[in-house]
Amino acid sequence: MNDYNFAYLDEQTKRMIRRAILKGLAIPGYQVPFASREMPMPYGWGTGGVQVSAAVLTPEDTFKVIDQGADDTTNAVSIRTFFQRTAGVATTTATRDATVIQTRHRIPEEPLTEGQILVYQVPIPEPLRFLEPRESETRKMHSLEEYGLMHVKLYEDISRHGHIATSYAYPVKVEGRYVMDPSPIPKFDNPKLGEMAAIQLFGAGREQRIYALPPYSQAVSLDFEDHPFEASKADHPCGMCGAVDSYLDELIVDDAGRRMFVCSDTDYCEARQAAGHKGKDAA
Amino acid sequence: MTPLLSVQNITKRYGAHIGCADVSFDLYPGEVMGIVGESGSGKSTLLNCMAGHLTPDAGQVVFDTRTDGPRDTITMSEPERRMLSRTDWAFVHQHARDGLRMGVSAGGNVGERLMAVGERHYGDIRDKATDWLGRVEIDAARVDDRPTTFSGGMQQRLQIARNLVTGPRLVFMDEPTGGLDVSVQARLLDLLRGLVRDMGLSAIIVTHDLAVVRLLADRLMVMKSGCVVEAGLTDQVLDDPQHAYSQLLVSSVLQV
Ligand SMILES: Nc1ncnc2c1ncn2[C@@H]1O[C@H](COP(=O)(O)OP(=O)(O)O)[C@@H](O)[C@H]1O
Ligand SMILES: [Mg+2]
After folding, report:
1. Helix, strand, coil: what percent of chain A each, to 5?
2. Which residues of A touch B108 (CB under 8 A)?
3. DSSP state of A96
């Protein structure tokens, strides 16, 4: 690890990223441009999140990485190993032991606490992009609070599917001001965004944007009066730990195509099993 | 009576080239003003200056706002001007695809302005969109279809519905019937005339087609090389043009 500066990035770069983070925290939900650096991993592997983590990590931190809720995917392992090597920080898979958690596509089930930082990997930071591709125009829409277009997207959803079919990257309005893409977390996680005790930081590497939610921010999921937001999930208990309140992945468990629903948050599931909870599919 | 729109000495240059020069006129509530002239005479430049799409080099565009009375829209803040463009103003482009969202259903296109001003009841928005499709003679069954599946005439009617749904007080139109087949043009003109009458719309219509202004406009301005060379009641100008250029235009000697 002595070949690298602490957490890989040089101090100058980290200061630049921290300034972007501080600005993001000062203007919740606002996308702050930053000069994204080349990282020794491809875009799409969370280079935005990695740069944010690099800027906030201290030697005393304990680091956790999840990918779709799991600590053991290739992506999660490689990022965790990266900071083990370049920052020498302690790592963990236990949500409550971590001080910095980098995540792709999930918010841990266990409520986060003050003093923790949740770092999201963001592929596309601009919630208005899909209907308005012009960056000059979306920037203006944010600055003038012209968000009618977000509801056009939801309108289209309902007219096509009979309900709001958007189930990931479901837009929220932050503190009554900026509309924000919460990254491709399932909308089940949206209610956790608001009033969270931890600091939430969002990093988009390819798009060079950082945005943030300070602790206890308000984040309201957009909807219609007659089609209110619903934080849906598969209507099953977890097959392994029996949890009825956690977000589930559907797995095909044998050649006969038998299905099983299990917690996507592996730490949550394992902790419940260790505490004696048992689902119907548990061995 | 206070003019709805008072245009004073509008000049727009493109570098050394004149787009339009020193144009002034008043438009009163319920009036339709036609602007005619050959291609390149500055009609679109003038319209875009009035609608806030271009910033003129000189002049004022004073609009009688609902809340604060007459205001110069050129010097008002951009948020205020953009708010006007999606509430009290409407803009119908010659090419429907410039004024529509081609990837969004007909209902979504019409509903957008409603949502932009804060409507949040899906059922109500859809009902209003469907009602407006009917008013522009589009089958309600097409409400979920994208404009890409519509004919040119239908796209133009959809663009009109999308613009009128919030009950604007002033409609800007740039060659609204241009690029359409003659038979389709006639139907669109009839429809526009009906809407203008029923809604008591105030409008400014730019066209090089004298038939359009004959049918829709109360008053007429004739432009040449960026300047207004003649203005007056439509019938007067068309039946008894004073300026040599207007005479040429009316006698169809000019192929415009
Ligand atoms: N963006 C531009 N840059 C330079 N010149 C322009 C531009 N737009 C229009 N013009 C010129 O300004 C004059 C008026 O154009 P325009 O307003 O488009 O006329 P019209 O709508 O009557 O055809 C023309 O000579 C045209 O070539
Ligand atoms: Mg033109």
Report:
1. 30, 20, 50
2. 152, 155-156, 159
3. G
Residue A233 and residue A190 in contact, taking contact as beta carbons nearer than 8 Å: no
**Rg of chain A taking only CA atoms, in angstroms:** 19
Nearest CA in chain A to B78: A144
pLDDT tens, residue by residue, A65-76: 999 999 999 999
The model carries a pTM of: 0.90
Phi-psi region of A210 (alpha: psi -120 to 50; beta: other; left: phi over 0): beta
Report the length, in residues, of chain A.
283
Nearest CA to ligand 1 atom 26: B40
- ipTM of the prediction: 0.91
Q: How far is it, in rounded angstroms, from Cα B39 to Cα A29?
A: 47
The answer to whether B137 and B105 have CB atoms below 8 angstroms apart is no
8-state DSSP, A36:
P
Residues B79, A159: C-beta atoms closer than 8 Å:
no
Cα distances (angstroms) measured from residue B106 to each of A5, B13, B52, B144, B156: 56, 38, 26, 6, 12
DSSP annotation string for B192-250: HHHHHHHHT-EEEEE-S-HHHHHHH-SEEEEEETTEEEEEEEHHHHHHS--SHHHHHHH
